[in-house]
Amino acid sequence: MNLVPTAEVISIGDELTSGQRLDTNSQWLSRRLSEIGLRPLFHTTVADDEGLMRQAFEQASQRADVTLITGGLGPTGDDLTRQVIAEVAGVPLLTDQAAVQYIEELFVSRGRSMPESNRVQAMYPAGGCLIPNLTGTAPGVDYQIQNTSHTCRFFAFPGVPAELKPMWWDYARPAIIEQFPELGIIVHHAIHCFGLGESDVERRLPDLIRRGRIPTVGITATKATITLRISAAGANPNECQAIIGPTAKLIRDEFAEYIFGENEITLPEVLIALLTEKQATLSVVDLGGCSLIAEWLNDADTTGQVYRGTVSLSQPDPSHSIEKLVNTAQTTFATDYVLVIGPILEDSEIPQRDVAIYGDGKQLGERFHAASNPSIVVQRSIKQALNFMRLAVERGDI
Q: For the chain, how far is it from start to end, CA to CA, in angstroms?
C-alpha cells in the first residue's frame, strides 16, 4: 500500500459518456476523499456496458486502495454495478431480505406497490454488504476485492447526489477512516493570478512544479485566470498549513502584482469587497456589447449595496461621447464610480481595448491588448477591466 492511500472514482452511465449530463459526483467525492487524507489519482467514466465496466473495475482494484462508484444501482436491465462487482470478485449475488422489506415499505409509503424488478436492488456480492440508503430505493454496496498482493475496497453509490451524499457522510467516510487509522488529511490552498501565463510561472520559479516536490503545486488556466494550487498531506490542518506556508509566501513574493485572491474568492468578489470597504458604489458602461460583466457583478455583490447597474451598447452611436455615457450612468444609477469598457479597436496590428474609471473628480485609463483565444476574449476583457479597477483601489489611485 502507498504511504498515502490512493483512490479512484468511477462514474457509470451512457448519459455521462454521451455528454448528455455533467458528472459532478466525481468532483464532489474527490474533495471529500482529500479531506480525510486519501489521494484521488483517477477519474473514470464508463458507459452502461458490462464488459467495459468489468474492465474498469478490474483496473481500479489493482491500482487504488479505495474505489468509489456512482450509478448503475437501479432496477433496470442496464443497471449492472452490483453484478459486475460480483463478477470481478468471482462470487455470487445474495439477497438481503431486510432490504427487500425496506424497499417494499418505501413504495407503499408512496402509494405504490413494488415492481418485481426492484428486488435486484436488495442484492449484494457474497462477502460484502449493503450500504443503507435512507432517501431512495437503491442501497449501496460495500465490498473488498483481494488481488494477489493488494486489497481494494469498493463503495458503490446511486448516482443521485441527494442520495449519494448522506451515504458518504453516514457510512463510507467513517468506514474509510476506521480502515485507515493512520490517515491524516490533505489540504489544498489556491492562489489566483491575472495577467500571468503558465509559462511565466515556470520560467520565474522553475522548481515550483517539480515532480516529487513537497508540497506539490499544480497550475491551471481557466478563462484567463491562472490558479496555483498548493497541496499538502498532514496529520491535521495546522500541520498541512505549516507545510503550505513557505511555498505560499514564495508565490506571493514572486507574483504579488498579479495575485488578486486566494482559495474560493473570485475577481469580481475582490473588487466588490474593496469598494464595500471604501463605502463606494459602482456602475458600468460596457461598449463591448456583453452583459456578462453585469452578471458577474450581480453575483458578487450579494447585498446589492455596491454595484448598481450597467449601460450596455453593442454598437455605440458615434454621437454619444464617453463623457455623455458616463454622465448617463452616474445619473441613472447614482454611483460614485463608473467603469468603462471600450469596444475592440481593430485599427492596429494587435486588437486593443480601452478601459477607464471615472469618479471622485478623477479619470484613469489604460489600453490593453484584446487579442486572445476567441472562446475567452470576452471574459479576458472583463477581467482586465475589473483587475484595472482593483489595482487602482488598492494603490489608492481612486
A: 57
Please give the pLDDT value at position 315: 67
Q: Give the model confidence (pLDDT) of 223-237 as tens digits.
A: 889 999 999 988 889
pLDDT of residue 158: 95
Placement of cell 496590428 in the chain = 349
Structure-block grid coordinates of residue 215: 508540497
- DSSP 3-state assignment of 236? coil
| Closest alpha carbon to 71 in 91, 56, 87, 58 | 56
Tell me which residues of the chain have a pLDDT lower than 70.
1-2, 289-290, 315-319, 348, 372
Cβ–Cβ < 8 Å for 60, 43: no
CATH architecture assigned to 267-394: Alpha-Beta Complex (3.90)
- Strand ranges in 195-301 using DSSP code E only, listed in sequence order: 216-222, 225-234, 259-262, 282-286
Q: How many residues does the structure list for the chain?
A: 398
Positive/negative CA dihedral, 315, 321, 323, 325: negative
CA 230 to CA 29: how far, in whole Å? 19
Question: How would you list the strands of the sheet with 352-359, edge to edge?
Answer: 307-312, 282-286, 337-345, 352-359, 362-369
Please list the residues that pair with 143 across neighbouring strands. Answer: 154
What is d(CA 113, CA 381) in angstroms, rounded to the nearest whole number? 58
d(CA 183, CA 238): 15
CATH for 6-179, among 2.30.40.10, 3.40.50.10330, 3.90.190.20, 3.40.980.10? 3.40.980.10
